[in-house]
Records
---
Amino acid sequence: MITYLEAIREAQAKALADDPRVYIYGQDVGQFGGAFKATKGLAKEYPGRVLDAPISEDAIIGSAIGAAIEGMRPIIEMQFADFSTVGFNQIVNQAATLHWRTQIPCPITIRLPSGGTAGAGPFHSQSMEALYAHYPGLVVMTPATVEDAYSMLLEAVAIDDPVIFCEHKYLYYHLKAEKLPTEAVPTGKARIARQGRDATIVTYSAMLHESLACAEELASEGWEIEVIDLRTIKPLDTDTVLASVARTGRLLAVGEAWPWGGVTAEVIARVATEGFALLDAPPMRLNAKDTPVPFHPNLWGTHRPTAKTIAVALRRLLSA
């Protein structure tokens, strides 16, 4: 069995082996192997290509952009997604706009350990995907499976655009698969994780598994819930979402991030704009509470959506 975290490590190892332009840069990624050990052993295997960075996310991203301009393909590790805001200017004003301004590609991959874990609190638990998806020029990936963590990271490195790779910390050890994939669904294409006819859940990242657990619970009550895993939120596969809503007539968008201006809001806006006639009931969304992420594990457990709270929302939607 291979874990979600091991898949990310294996993808980086393959990228280093296959392309001499690839290197890894981040705080403690070398001999220490990274904060979560996602680069464990790679510095020894690829000397001079897994490099420790100073504690300056602004400098880390800036140097990666410069290296990309000169033909390299950097993989940047942020210790936590939250800290990427220190390099926000470099990401959205430099990397995202570079090709539009100069016709020079900016093939950098920025790995963001995202989302909450029990006890991590407000500075180490944020979901930043909607923030970066707001900006043209960035690809934002949110892999929810071991297979996608591997294949999408390899695709991120190959893409000529800057990629924000939101890997969920809670999935690092909680998620396992028997083997790594040899084929992959293309970037920008959503996946039907479970087929159904009564309602559609559109979700991504760790909330996929809460949504699937909810769908399994409601199946015992006779409901068939379709679950869509977006996989990437920029670009967002509106066609797959609309096709699902056309089958079910009901939509619940679920995300771990805060509700205001988030991915779930964008999903509902697109369905309401492009598929209003497909709906048999008003669309709903479920997000984390609109507060900073709490430290206490019990509070954290009620702050984010869970299979139980998703089921409550779905029952309300199904009765509408």
---
Amino acid sequence: MDTIRALIADDEAHLRDYLESQLKTVWPELRVVAHAANGLEALRMTDEEAPDVVFLDIRMPGLTGLDVAARLVDGPKPPHIVFVTAYDQYAVDAFEHSAVDYLLKPASLERLEKTVAKLKARLKPAAAAEGAVPAAALQALLAQLAAGGVAAAVPAPAPAAAPLQWIRASHGEETRLIPIDEVIYFQSNDKYTSVFVAEGESLIRTPISKLREQLDEQQFWQIHRSVIVAARHVAGTRQDFRGRLMVQLKGRPEQLVVSRNYVDLFRGM
């Protein structure tokens, strides 16, 4: 198979870089030939670079990812399109039942591996000759999304209450993009908030009071004015010799104090 070329379109540079770094891990032979920060740039770069695959953020200023896809599908040789989204369950449901793939931000390696496997199958010479993803399939999907009101709603900003999908944090001299699913707990630390993941501790400047407003309260529990813990990492609770309720974490030695204001969370455990 010849070298496969790809374009990544997203209006947030760090998310473009993050997706490219993930792709290098699961598909090292893929060559990312261009980045685009908006829909018009995506169209221009697609015309100039003729990528085989285009990763399209759905929500971009100007032309949306859906607008770009609608124009690309009318071209003489449409690229394979993977939509990237952080929103809209209706759109996700539609993608699930279509020939077109999608990724939820930030893309996990496991999910990206499935997308790459689909793309490789479609890019095989025999599949390409047969039209593995015919233009009609993409056109039908775009029509379905538009009929559901998705296309009209795309330019609107995400709701303020939408839960965080990732955390941009400092780790030494590096800045890391941490998927929210990898966070074990947050802890207030003087002027910073510490973000604990399996690989260690990073720092963000967001106060824990503001952070709480951006987290899914079903997935993250505040157990102290300075601590928020991911519910899936809670192994159980116990009382220490002072009578304080302590949260025990799965596979970690540290135990977190539950303040009296939050003890009710653990009634019955």
